[in-house]
Amino acid sequence: MCDPDSSGSGGGISPRDYRLAFWGTFYAIALARLGRLVDAYEQAKLAVRRDPRFYAARLVLAFTLTQLDRSEEAIESIRQARRLRPKLSFAEIQLLLGRRGGNVVQPLWTAVADR
User: Fold this and answer.
1) Tell me, what's the pLDDT at 81?
2) Biggest CA-to-CA distance, the chain
3) What is the DSSP track for 36-97?
4) Looking at the domain 19-113, which fold is it?
């Protein structure tokens, strides 16, 4: 399995590097698209831990949680993303997750946006 923590040449990214959350988030998206939802969930969760202020990681976490039938946790993850980025729009979610991914979380987004 490819690990975004190391480059394979001994020059890996420092565990404190803020970019790990970014790369881990997009690695999680790739894993989800390959149907590896549990692995995608783990990577998204790790990305959130690495940078709790990176709202995109929380959206990918919400997407994976939705796919794993954990809607309540997914809703909370969307709420947290909205707290971090108050101007967050559904169009932005679709840019991150793609049209199909956006459609997966759209009912939860609507529930959160209506409150």
Assistant:
1) 97
2) 49
3) -HHHHHHHHHHHHHH-TT-HHHHHHHHHHHHHTT-HHHHHHHHHHHHHH-TT--HHHHHHHH
4) 1.25.40
pLDDT band at 113 (very low <50, low <70, confident <90, very high): confident
Domain ranges of the chain: 19-113
Overall residue count recorded for the chain in this entry: 115
Region 85-107: what's the mean pLDDT? Answer: 95
- Which pair of tokens denotes residue 91? 């169009």
Q: At what angle do helices 90-113 and 71-84 cross, to 10 degrees?
A: 120
Across the chain, what does the average pLDDT equal? 89
